[in-house]
Amino acid sequence: MIEAFQNINKAFESKVRLGIMAVLMVNDEADFNSLKELLSLTDGNLASHTRALEELGYIVCRKAFVGRKTKTTFQATPQGREAFKAHIDALESFLKST
Known about the structure:
alpha+beta, Arc Repressor Mutant, subunit A, Transcriptional regulator
């Protein structure tokens, strides 16, 4: 049973990071406000978790101006998609083994 935990990615142990990646796996991209509303997060909480995922290379952050306001969007990288899929596969494998 211990073997099943070897492929579980610690980056996704947080339900916030799990939620961010889940949204980005089914959408090409998501903007800051949409993620904040979908996951019921504060600005600071979302910013810290997206920064952590970005530092790992799992997501990219893009900032643009729409009128005079900044619009921040996030997108899962190929590396992030692969890591998240491996994490989900490991969880499924663990559940099937119990």
